[in-house]
Amino acid sequence: MPDEFDGKPLRTSEEVRGALMTMMDRRLQSVAGALNAKLACFYGCESSSRIYRMVLGGQVLASRYPYLPEQFLVAVNIGEVEAVTSTDPISALVGFPVKWKTQQGNSASVRMFDKPALLTRGLSKSLGTVMGLLVQ
Questions:
Q1: H or E segment at 77?
Q2: Cα-only R_g, the chain
Q3: What is the pLDDT of residue 105?
Q4: Contacts of 5 (CB under 8 A, 6+ apart)
Q5: How far is residue 110 from each of residues 9, 12, 64, 117, 123, measured CA to CA in Å?
């Protein structure tokens, strides 16, 4: 994360986490708009570990999109953040001056969950997921 967001300086880790959550919320709203979907946070909405529900609206062309979930969940988690040291190579890796980063490990994640229906010759087969793998 750079040292500012929306033209305001980011001075504390709490401000950075808030800015990251605002950024993720805006990006999810943009995706929902592109999919003609409704997006609503329903768990942890004031925290940095949120779950959103996205419900697809309108008619989606089955020939173009064979997997048609009616809805899916998006879990966003932003862990602790820390200031970047002058010796950290992250700025060179991402291509802009980085002031803040999440801690090492899986400390920032966006996960999506659904139960899609595969349309095959007009018939739908219900599919589910187990540990992220698609099963029938």
A1: strand 71-78
A2: 18
A3: 83
A4: 19, 22, 23
A5: 25, 23, 25, 22, 32
Per-residue pLDDT tens digits for 41-67: 989 999 999 999 998 876 655 556 667
pTM metric for this prediction? 0.75
Neighbouring CB atoms inside 10 A of 1's CB total 19
pLDDT at residue 133 in the model: 46
| Residue 81 CB neighbours (<10 A) | 24
Q: For the chain, what are the domain ranges?
A: 4-135
Q: State how far the Cα of 4 lies from the Cα of 118, in Å rounded to an integer.
A: 44
Phi-psi region of 14 (alpha: psi -120 to 50; beta: other; left: phi over 0): alpha
122: left (phi over 0), alpha (psi -120 to 50) or beta: left
CA neighbor of 76 nearest in space, from 41, 102, 101: 41
CA 126 from centroid of its chain's CA atoms: 25
